[in-house]
Design goal:
The structure is a single chain. The protein contains 8 helices and 7 strands. By secondary structure, it is of the alpha/beta class. The chain has a 7-stranded mixed beta sheet with strand order 3-2-1-4-5-7-6, sandwiched between helices. The longest helix is centred in the last third of the chain and has 15 residues, at 179-193. It binds 3,4-dihydroxybenzoic acid and magnesium ion.
Length: 219
Amino acid sequence: VSDPAWSAVDEYLAGHLLSDDEALTAALANNKAQGLPPIDVSAVQGKLLHLLARMAGARRVLEVGTLGGFSTIWLARALPEGGKVVTLELEARNAKVARENVDRAAVGDKVEILVGPAKDSLAAMQPGDPFDFVFIDADKQSNAHYVQEAIRLGRPGTTIIVDNVVRDGGVIDAGSTNAQIVGTRRMFELLAKEGRLDATAIQMVGAKGWDGFVLALVL
Ligand code: DHB
Ligand code: MG
């Protein structure tokens, strides 16, 4: 589902609220040149993540799903000196592109990219130096697991954001056999009964179509 007006409004909003951004423009061009799919968050969504991380006073950010590092750059820019984004990427070739992009954006020293299945990278992490902010944007099949890991690796007050939780309205299709929809619905079932979280979700339309974010707070 898409509407040209949604993209036009995104462009209007970005034109007023976002500066021309050489590093982000270059990152998207590099992604395209190297064949990465254009499934990054939109520019206004990237800035939303950036502002939410700043509002949360985040120093340590966990990102599940790096792709080419577009959202990684937005998140890294939200951090104070000494802050860190630990970002998990399945594909080594995506991670290589992301490394180029974050370095060009001059946030490379704030970004650690772990290559391999996110489940494995997460399983190897010990709680202790908790994440303040978690952005989940990887294989939707595993979203419930990723939320549980975000709670384990967070602390009371940690912010959790999950991308792509509406999927053109597909989330309400109880009979769906699409693994991504099934995974997203499993995540909502978890959120409904998980006492360690308080959560909401918002639908969005824009350059990326009709989709949404979950926003959750670890209690
Ligand atoms: C897809 C994944 C995303 O994270 C997204 O924002 C849009 C699309 C996908 O796998 O198709
Ligand atoms: Mg996404």
